[in-house]
Design a protein that fits this description.
By secondary structure, the protein is mainly α. It has one domain. It contains 7 helices and no strands. The longest helix has about 80 residues, at about 5-90.
């Protein structure tokens, strides 16, 4: 006898294959859409990453320029303080007030390092910092502000010493005589200043603190340079 169920079974098979084909096409379409979306996101992230890296590089290059300027003046200050100690030790052999004046002027370089961190803070708050591939660079960027903050104590102490010195300097020195060529009708007592025990103590404390601050700046500079080098490497990828 002929199989009466053949045609329905055949039709069901064709429908099943058609359904499977439709499902496969849908899955392929979804996978393609996902891939296109990933490519689009990758393109957006790449552009954003480049933007962040360029902003960070410009910021840290400016910070390095400022740091080198501060370090230069701190070096001048330390040299002046060492010169002051030598003058104190040989005060009875000095007759030219110009030597005292030049030394005192060099001691007034009270420059502190205050870097700009706008691009860094923006990258951290937005989460864009995690677009960076280098884990070492991310670590350096996250620790940057704490590193700089640690140096503030030395800087603030130095500024306090400098501020405290004004009362002592005003006791012996006329500003007009130091800062203007014509001098003052009330002569300064430079010898008296350099013989004052408080001035010697101030000079020693200031020299020690300036030396410590310079060492802090050297550590900050090392990190700053490494950050710039790492940013350059990221930009080349």
């Amino acid at each position: 006898m002929p199989n009466k169920t053949g045609k329905p079974a055949f039709a069901a098979g064709r429908y099943f294959k058609y359904a499977i084909g439709e499902i496969i096409l849908v899955v392929i379409g979804i996978l393609i859409a996902i891939q296109l979306n990933e490519w689009r996101n990758d393109s957006i992230n790449t552009k954003q990453k480049q933007k962040v890296l360029l902003a960070l590089k410009a910021e840290f290059e400016a910070n390095l320029t400022q740091l080198d300027k501060v370090y230069y003046y701190q070096t001048n200050t330390l040299n002046a303080l060492n010169k002051t100690m030598n003058l104190i030790d040989s005060i009875n052999y000095i007759s030219d007030d110009k030597v005292f004046i030049e030394t005192i002027l060099d001691m007034k370089y009270e420059y502190s390092y205050n870097p700009t961190n706008g691009a860094l803070r923006s990258a951290v708050s937005s989460g864009d910092i995690h677009l960076i591939d280098s884990q070492r660079l991310i670590e350096l960027l996250f620790s940057w502000e704490d590193l700089v903050k640690d140096s503030f104590e030395e800087s603030e102490r130095q500024n306090k010493y400098a501020s405290d010195s004004y009362l002592l300097l005003d006791k012996y020195i006329q500003l007009k005589e130091v800062h203007f060529e014509k001098g003052s009708k009330h002569p300064s007592d430079f010898v008296g200043l350099f013989k004052d025990a408080f001035f010697e103590d101030y000079t020693l404390r200031m020299a020690f603190n300036t030396y410590s601050y310079k060492k802090e700046l050297e550590g900050i500079r090392k990190s700053n340079v490494e950050i710039i080098q790492s940013l350059d490497q990221e930009l080349k990828k």
